[in-house]
Design brief:
461 residues, five-stranded antiparallel β-sheet, four-stranded antiparallel β-sheet
Length: 461
């Protein structure tokens, strides 16, 4: 039996009761499951009665029993009181006496239903889709790099060349771990190795052996090498230079379906323009939502923000895992803590939750619904997003997990977003608006990693 005490500012306070009989029966289950852990003189292990164990160790079965019963009790109370619970509840044991029903006091955040401000015709700034010639040149140069040919040269190595080297490092004549490699490929000028290493290879030719003298940076990751002077005995095996193809009709025919370079360049610009238009639409959508949130003074409950931070961190951990990096390794390499990571994600999580509440309120205001066909289509799209090889099985499993309501909610909010974009008035942003937009964007943790970062001790990282 649940009783609502108050429900103000999206925070409900209620009490719910767990019967003593149910509680004691659950405690007895815990006893039978764990009694083998306790050694009582005069009894074989696992054979001591519950009362005897409690006389020696206290009411040790109560906590597990309460934890086992609470989730169902809270779920039942939320349904009985018709609360839209969000986040984790704050639970206090209001009363507890032997052989009496247990009264639990719960403080629970609930889903806000914000009142939207007038949004029709409101001006929303955006940056129109544009592609500069420099962007086209950069895209073409990238393709040119892909088609470059490496050719051995007999001249001395210079900046930009790719070399193959053996090296063996030592400090005061003593070799150190990780300081030796054979046939190591290195692009001179890439900054992959510690400062001063690559520059001393320049001017040497294939077949030469020579010493490279360097000092490890004070911030170097290996404690025993920080700030130390080292000598690397280097043998230069080969020097290669990159031969870039000419940007002409032949190049266009080699890398595309077009006969002339002008046609190829125009296709690159159109391709970039398509991406720019997609970016423009996303910016319009995001800015429209932000404007609606600001006008309506929507402040999401902290409980919802914390839940969204959890989601963001799980997604980040999955990205790391795909790169072969664990969260523990990322923390160690980056010198960050989980608290700092949560703090970094909180602004973006707060914006996401506030925008979600705004779209939910707009969908409710306009009476948008999701048909069964739309829900299935959304599930198919999710199946593609997650790379499912069997979309029908994916949809079946989602329905078995009762995910239709969540998907239907997404469909309604997408309709609300499309509607919002139609109702506001978009105006071209001023030049300095880009700086303001950049300030509003939360910084995502840097997950970039390179092979060079793993090359201790010759890499700068």
């Amino acid at each position: 039996m649940a009783q609502l005490e108050s429900h103000e500012k999206d925070l409900a306070v209620y009490t719910t009761t767990i019967s003593w009989d149910d509680f004691n029966a659950e405690a007895d289950k815990v006893y039978r499951r764990t009694r083998g852990r306790y050694a009582i003189p005069g009894f074989r292990k696992g054979k001591a009665p519950r009362k005897i164990i409690e006389m020696n160790y206290g009411k040790i079965f109560y906590e597990d029993a309460l934890n086992a019963l609470l989730p169902d009790a809270l779920d039942a109370a939320v349904k009985e009181l018709e609360l839209e619970a969000v986040g984790r509840p704050d639970v206090d044991l209001d009363t507890f006496e032997e052989k009496k029903d247990i009264v639990v006091k719960v403080t629970q955040a609930t889903l806000p239903h914000p009142t939207l401000a007038e949004y029709k015709g409101v001006e929303v700034a955006y940056h129109s889709a544009q592609v500069a010639d420099e962007e086209v040149d950069h895209a073409i140069e990238q393709e040119r790099e892909k088609n470059a040919v490496m050719r051995p040269v007999e001249r001395a190595a210079q900046n930009g060349d790719t070399v193959s080297i053996d090296y063996a490092g030592s400090i005061d004549g003593v070799a150190f771990d990780g300081g030796t490699a054979e046939k190591q490929t290195l692009v001179l000028g890439s900054g992959a190795f510690i400062p001063g290493f690559e520059e001393q290879i320049e001017g040497h030719t294939a077949g030469e052996s020579f010493d490279v003298n360097v000092t490890f940076p004070e911030e170097y990751h290996a404690e025993d090498l920080k700030g130390k002077d080292a000598v690397f005995a280097v043998t230069l095996h080969e020097v290669q230079e990159k031969e870039m193809p000419e940007l002409d009709d032949d190049f266009a025919q080699d890398v595309s379906e077009y006969d002339t370079f002008d046609e190829y360049r125009a296709s690159i610009k159109e391709h970039l323009m398509e991406h720019a238009r997609e970016h423009e639409l996303v910016e319009k959508q995001n800015n429209a939502i932000k404007t609606l949130v600001k006008l309506s003074n929507i402040e999401p409950p902290q409980a919802m923000v914390e839940e969204q931070v959890d989601v963001e961190i799980r997604n980040f951990a999955n990205q790391l895992q795909q790169m072969g990096i664990s969260m523990e390794q990322y923390m160690q390499f980056g010198g960050a803590s989980i608290e700092q990571l949560r703090e970094n994600y909180e602004p973006a999580a707060r914006d996401r939750v506030a925008g979600d509440l705004a779209l939910g309120a707009l969908a409710e205001e306009q009476g948008f619904e999701a048909t069964e066909e739309e829900i299935d289509a959304e599930m198919k799209e999710l199946a593609e997003t997650y790379g499912s090889k069997d979309p029908e099985d994916f949809i079946k499993r989602m329905k078995e997990m009762h995910q239709e309501d969540l998907v239907a909610d997404d469909v309604r909010k997408k309709k609300a977003l499309d509607y919002l974009v139609e109702q506001v008035t978009f105006v071209e942003a001023k030049e300095d608006a880009s700086e303001e937009a950049a300030e509003e964007t939360g910084d995502a943790p840097d997950v970039n990693t390179t092979e060079e970062q793993a090359d201790a001790p010759a890499s700068e990282e």
